[in-house]
Amino acid sequence: MNAFAVTSEPPATADEPGRVKKRSRPRAQRVWQTVGPLVIFLAMLAVVAALTPAFLGGGGLTIIAASAAPILLVALGQALVLHIGSIDLSNAAIALLGAILLAITLSSIGPVAPLLVLVIVTVCGALNGLLVAYAQVPSFALTLGTLGIYSAAALVASGATTVYVASGGEAIAALYATGIVGIPLTFWLGVVVAVLLWAMLRFTRLGLGMTAVGRNESGAIFSAVRTRVIKVIVFSLSGFTAGLAAITIIAQAGSASPTGLGSDLLLPAIAAAIVGGTSISGGATNPVNVVFGALTVALVPIATAALGIDAQAQSLVYGVVIIAVVALTMTRSRGAIVK
Which residues of 135-171 are buried (b: 16+ CB within 10 A; e: fewer)? Predict the structure, then answer.
């Protein structure tokens, strides 16, 4: 038996109208996951361009891409965790902790610092995965707890103040200062990671196993899929992408702070993953579309300002977006219970 086989219903026939109707929603979901994120981004960009015509001509796309870079990398990790039917509320805090550690260590150990930070944050993610997989702690409750732990660690490591890169950060700063077609390399880093993750999900045994876990974990277990190992790997990847986000934060700001750039990535990253077509119930993720989800979320502050909405209402907009997209895209079948 193929360990990653996914059973499907036989095709509906013309004399079974009920089944035709039942199959229409999954088809609509596939269309959404393919083109929806791009359509939403282009629609919002058109609104912003119409309300503020000078924005696009004045380096607006560069601003959007730079703002989207850390959101995208955290969102990619979040999308992988959502893909297996879990959630990681701590990866944004891990990114902030990584940025602070990177700012502290760059001046003393130079080019080794990014590698060390990537190892540390990947271990943080792996610890989450181990507790979810082997201690059977629900991911929401666990990562809510580790969110507090990693946030406290960031506060202690920084001394509750801004940590500036004293020296040795020139190479990292070049990621933000250098661009391709006017877009910073920090954003292109996220695009490359998204493409690699897309290939992993589509063509590798690990990716097929992740999809099996997200669609039907019980079935995956009976098919001899190593679900616990997969969970540890996925949470580790979430920590790793958070570490890459930490590097983009330092590249852009040259400093890190518990209340500065990167301190409010959690809600935007979740919104970006969901707007990017990631199913909240697991089993459906296209990392490439998460790129457009991150760009859309990065546009929210600009769009709200263009519409005359107070900046403090941005969290409200993120929340409304999450609710609306989940309501429009989640699968509902007759007799199913939504919890």
Answer: eeeebeebbeebbeebbebbbebbeeeebebeebbee
